[in-house]
Amino acid sequence: MNTIREDLREKRFLVADGGWGTFLIAEGMQPGECPELWNVNRPEVVRRIGENYIAAGSDLISTNSFGGTRCKLEQHGLGERTAELNEAAAALSRQAAGADNHVIASIGPTGKFLITGEISEEDLYDAFKEQAQALERGGADACIIETFSAVDEAAVAVRAVAENTKLEIICSFTYASVVGGVPRTMMGATAADMAQATLEAGAHILGANCSFGSEEMLAVVQALHEAAPGTPILVNPNAGQPVQAETGIVYPESPEYMAGFARRFVEAGASILGGCCGTNPEHIRAIKAALRAIG
User: Fold this and answer.
1) What is the pLDDT along the chain (295 residues), one digit of tens a residue?
2) CA nearest to 157, candidates 32, 89, 83, 71
3) Could you give all domains of the chain from N- to C-terminal order, each with its CATH number?
4) What is the distance between the alpha carbons of residues 72 and 203, in angstroms, rounded to a whole number?
5) What is the rounded CA–CA span in Å between residue 206 and residue 227?
6) HSE-up (13 A, CA, CB side) for residue 30
7) Environment class of 229 (CB within 10 Å of its CB; exposed 0-12, middle 13-18, buried 19+)
8) pTM of this prediction?
9) Which of 61, 62, 137, 204 is the most exposed place for a label (fewest CB within 10 A)?
């Protein structure tokens, strides 16, 4: 299989997937339940999510492993099952993706902060190493270190993956504000801070996901492109800001609305487009069609 970067040289654009959590909740996942446990208890549901995105046109699908570090799984009493749950996550997405599409294993933050001293850099490194190796054994060919806010934690994660696996590495931050045209994370990091630290640590592709809807995310993509003009950029915005409705939380951006930003994202520097919270296969199908129209 080509790398993602090789595919981009041949195809110009690639389409990622959308949200996963909504599907699990619709199937009965309860608040506080461990999503990664579904990889072994409800594997048919998890596999079907990936299959739905492949059918909608995704070239890359992620894995149900966002909270799969030992640090996170220990909160559910599942720390000793870290390897098992991550291997299962990657295997299910590989089954859904087939041989011709990429599985980008999801690695999320641990929830622990180096700056406070609650975890050492060595323990943090080991946690990401353990998860990444299990995801690679399960069949992932790349990973997405996603929804990070702290540059130091993300850099450790990237380094752990780069030094212990052959996975291609996407590193994607989530941003909390744009002040004076400068996007910043909750921890105050800028897109330039993120780009420099994670590329030096071994990342191959940069990204932005979650928090913002399509309009707000444009500034982030532009900032990433300016910081690293030769690096591929992934963008996975939310389907707008969540709104409380009688039926629960809804996201206002329709598939057509999000697809309408495809050209603007490409012009800003993105080459991999997908979605995060509130997005579904219909959003991905619309984005795929929009990219085909660009050519």
Assistant:
1) 999 999 999 999 999 999 999 899 999 999 999 999 999 999 999 999 999 999 999 999 999 999 999 999 999 999 999 999 999 999 999 999 999 999 999 999 999 999 999 999 999 999 999 999 999 999 999 999 999 999 999 999 999 999 999 999 999 999 999 888 899 999 999 999 999 999 999 999 999 999 899 999 999 999 999 999 999 999 999 999 989 888 778 899 999 999 999 999 999 999 999 999 999 999 999 999 999 999 7
2) 71
3) 4-294 (3.20.20.330)
4) 23
5) 10
6) 1
7) exposed
8) 0.97
9) 137
The letter for the amino acid at 187 is: M
Largest CA distance in the chain: 50
| Distance in angstroms (rounded) separating the CA atoms of residues 76 and 72 | 8
What tokens appear for 17 in the block? 């997937």
Torsion 253-259-263-265 (CA) sign: positive
Both tokens of 195, joined, read 């780009």
Contact 119, 110 (CB under 8 A): yes
Taking the mean position of all CA atoms in its chain, how far away is CA 269?
18
